[in-house]
Design a protein that fits this description.
The complex is a heterodimer of chains A (337) and B (460). Chain A is α/β, with parallel strands linked by helices. Helix content of chain A is 46%, strand content 10%. With 460 residues, chain B is α+β, with helices and mostly antiparallel strands. Chain B is built from 15 helices and 19 strands. In chain B, strands 12, 13, 14, 15, 16, 17, 18 and 19 form an 8-stranded antiparallel beta sheet that branches. The chains are: A alpha/beta (337), B alpha+beta (460).
């Protein structure tokens, strides 16, 4: 069984404890934060193990790349602490269990990972994907497993992720364009943290989109819209790709509005919080987030993750903001939508 | 039979009587497990007077008659066990009146659930009736004769509780009005404050008369409707969960279900809750009250609300739910039947365990489903199996499993809902002798020649 590589000394010597001090859901000073981190490291009870809502942001806030969220999830599971109810947790574990019901296209060395999200296959159409549309993988056999961090079930990750990596390797894929942040985060953050070798090159689909749009530059008609960006929880596992949102917006002539909850201060879509903590926190997060979008004057809410889109589309629409996935926005810029 | 045929032709016209084999084939069976038996004749009247003439003819000639709606009860209630005439009511489908302010409708005895829903949607968008989860072709009158339950059962009880008046053709041919309509032009009450005679017909499976018109209570239809699903892996908690949810008085309908496949649903019990509102605020207040009512179970991690993705919502919000038909074909071959005892909610855990045990024992695909009736006064617990109609051995296993299931429910204090003939016999064996005697007196007086749907509720 693979194990989390966690360097306790980095936390012991950390002078900021940013992972907790900057947490948007736990109000804690630096000294207390450090004490709680030490408790977690020693396997003692910590209020953090009860209060963490699994927004993933600490993975970005930790300046040492020491994976505080993974460690919290490990400790929770060791102690038998559930985030969501047993029933919901098991539902998610069952839902993504490999059952041989996957889909594989005409695989080339470069392939699209649609994870276990059929919507991503729908999105991968048109000029932006004309070379790659048929080379894809989709299904639980290729599911990136990151979601089990929300449910404090790292055992599932440890059991299934090596198989997922192997399934992709067996197909001879050399470059995997990850259509979902979670997949990219899984192969570039989660797998290395657990010592799982990834024998292919994961490419974030933002990079792919950016390159494609540059190739199609002459076909772009600037959109001249103001748009807010909904940053998903899993993007915290690959914060180095966030800059590409602005660069893609620049290429397609969209204005990324300035607002309070963006960048490192972004709020998640809230829907997982509803399962983990209840409606109070979820409603509060969603209200703050959408209010902020309205205040910023955004005409569009641009999504990266299809699940964020499902969670917030109706809510932003009711406030007069159009929901759209970033791929559809790019298609719109080249006259495809 | 030829004279009867001619007599029927004289009553309804040649195109509305049939003795043709290919038609009798269909009228000999329903989609359930019961063996087929052909009628001698099928007739489709258009008016109460035509029904009256047919019944008088049958009574005079002592010919069995079986009144029929869409024939979708699945338990063989419209199979003409002793032959005779099937009176198919489908041509009597007029919606005669809607009293918007008093919230009731008067419809003919063959009016379908779908027709009334469509009519109300089109003409009275603020009104609705309690729609059962059955195909829209099923009829309102047939539904109340089996004490059906629909989308408002949690709030208002059985669909037969929502009847506000009846016009019935008695087995001896008299046309009889029941309720306020017996002395008033208004159909606002099926009985009170008069002696309530509706009980002579509701729940009798068409053995005491033919409903030719009925008044049906309508209810406010809110602009918005949403669904939440509370999931737990502990069936023993379901009664308490339901008690708390119904205490909120905020829920329109509550269904509980469990099934082994697809794997997503394995091992859990799902409480589907429907909430309605005219504004976002109303809806959210109700949602909050619902979530709060089960807070203890959420905090103990014994249960939680699942995230219903937008793509899944229409399936749950469908009225009626089409997913039942999907289940019916799980085994390919389109067979589906269930026993649905009405029983105390506190019996949910033992029934759920029994159903899984039966499915395992008889190697069958199952679906457990329950609908709360009233404020947890009772529930219908559906013991459902799907089967391949071409596989007689599998059908035999389903029969045995259903028999054991209903017997188990009776042992735990349940009573049958739309029972098969066999289940009726099992029920009557357990019934108080004086109750049986009263039923016999009623039947003998109303139907002295025993012509009405014979074979059913055979108290003689």
């Amino acid at each position: 069984m693979v194990r989390l590589k966690f360097d306790e000394n980095l936390c012991i010597n950390c002078q900021t404890s940013d992972c907790l001090v900057r947490c948007q859901f736990i109000d804690i000073d630096r000294e207390t934060a450090h004490q709680e981190v030490m408790k977690i490291i020693k396997g003692e009870d910590s209020s953090v193990l009860r209060d963490c809502v699994t927004c993933y942001a600490c993975e970005e806030y930790c300046q040492w790349g020491n994976h505080p969220l993974y460690q919290i999830s490990e400790r929770r599971e060791e102690k038998g602490m559930l985030t969501a109810s047993r029933a919901i947790t098991n539902q998610w574990i069952n839902m993504c269990e490999p059952q041989g019901k996957y889909k594989v296209g005409e695989i080339k060395e470069k392939a699209l990972s649609c994870c276990f999200i059929g919507e991503l296959r729908r999105l991968a159409r048109g000029k932006l994907f004309e070379d790659l549309r048929s080379s894809y993988i989709l299904g639980p056999e290729f599911f990136c497993e990151v979601v089990y961090l929300h449910f404090a079930k790292t055992s599932v990750i440890k059991e299934r992720l090596p198989m997922v990596v192997d399934n992709i390797k067996q197909l001879g894929i050399k470059q995997l364009i990850c259509m979902h942040d979670e997949c990219y985060g899984s192969f570039t953050s989660l797998a290395p943290a657990y010592g799982i070798e990834v024998p292919f090159e994961p490419i974030h689909y933002f990079e792919y989109l950016f390159e494609k749009l540059r190739d199609l530059k002459n076909e772009i008609k600037p959109l001249k819209i103001k748009a807010a960006y909904q940053r998903p929880c899993s993007s915290r596992l690959s914060p180095d790709k966030y800059h590409l949102v602005g660069e893609i917006f620049d290429l397609i002539g969209a204005e990324l509005v300035e607002r309070e909850y963006q960048g490192e201060n972004a709020l998640c879509c809230g829907e997982v919080l509803r399962m983990v903590t209840g409606y109070e926190v979820a409603n509060d997060v969603q209200k703050k987030n959408v209010d902020d979008m309205v205040l910023s004057g955004a005409e569009y809410c641009v999504f990266n993750c299809p699940y964020c889109q499902m969670a917030l589309s109706e809510k932003v629409s009711k406030r007069g903001i159009k929901p759209i996935h970033i791929i559809d926005l790019c298609k719109m810029a080249i006259g495809e939508k | 039979m030829i004279d009867i045929y001619k007599s029927l032709v004289e009553i309804v016209g040649e195109e509305h009587v049939s003795t043709q084999k290919e038609e009798l084939y269909f009228y000999a069976r329903d989609p359930g497990l019961m063996p087929a038996h052909e009628p001698d004749c099928v007739v489709t009247p258009e008016t109460t007077e035509e029904v009256q003439k047919i019944v008088k003819l049958a009574n005079r000639e002592k010919i069995p008659i079986v009144p029929m709606g869409a024939g979708m009860a699945l338990t063989g209630l419209i199979i003409p066990l002793k032959g005779g005439i099937v009176i198919d009511m489908k041509r009597m489908r007029r919606i005669l009146e809607v009293n918007e302010k008093a919230r009731y409708a008067i419809v003919e005895g063959g009016t379908s659930q779908g027709a009334l829903k469509a009519y109300l949607d089109r003409n009275y968008p603020n009104l609705r009736h309690s729609l059962p989860d059955a195909p829209p072709t099923t009829t309102i009158a047939a539904n109340v004769t089996i004490h059906g339950q629909g989308r408002l059962a949690q709030q208002y009880g059985f669909n037969s509780d929502m009847v506000s008046g009846l016009e019935v053709v008695l087995p001896t041919g008299e046309i009889c009005k029941i309720g306020s309509c017996s002395m008033s032009p208004a159909w606002f009450s099926k009985g009170p404050a008069l002696p309530d005679l509706s009980g002579l017909f509701l729940g009798w499976l068409g053995t005491t008369g033919i409903i030719t018109k009925l008044g049906l209570k309508l209810y406010p239809k809110k602009k918005m409707r949403d669904v939440e699903i509370f999931v737990t892996d502990r069936e023993d908690l379901i009664p308490e969960i339901l008690f708390r949810l119904t205490h909120t008085e905020m829920v329109e309908d509550i269904n509980i279900w469990f099934q082994a496949k697809p794997i997503l649903f394995k091992g859990n019990h799902h409480v589907t809750l429907y909430i309605t509102g005219d504004t976002d605020e109303e809806l959210e207040l109700k949602r909050k009250m619902v979530w709060d009512s089960v807070k203890e179970f959420r905090e103990s991690k014994d249960g939680g609300f699942m995230w219903i993705l937008p793509a899944m919502k229409p399936t749950f919000l469908d009225m009626p739910q089409k997913s039942v038909t999907t289940f019916a074909d799980v085994k390919k071959g389109g067979g589906f039947e269930y026993s649905g005892p009405i029983i105390l909610i506190e019996k949910y855990p033992v029934l759920a365990r029994k159903l899984e045990e039966l499915a395992d024992q008889y190697k069958l695909a199952y679906s457990g489903m329950a609908r709360v009736i009233g404020r947890s006064h009772a529930m219908m617990f559906g013991i459902a199996f799907t089967f391949n109609r071409a596989d007689l051995e599998m059908m035999d296993r389903v029969k045995k499993a259903l028999h054991e299931g209903i017997a188990f429910a009776f042992e735990h204090g349940g009573i049958p809902w739309k029972p098969t003939v066999e289940e009726q016999k099992m029920a009557m064996e357990r019934m108080d002798p004086n109750t049986l005697k009263l039923m016999r007196m009623i039947k003998e007086n109303l139907d002295p020649n025993g012509i009405m749907n014979p074979g059913n509720w055979e108290v003689n």
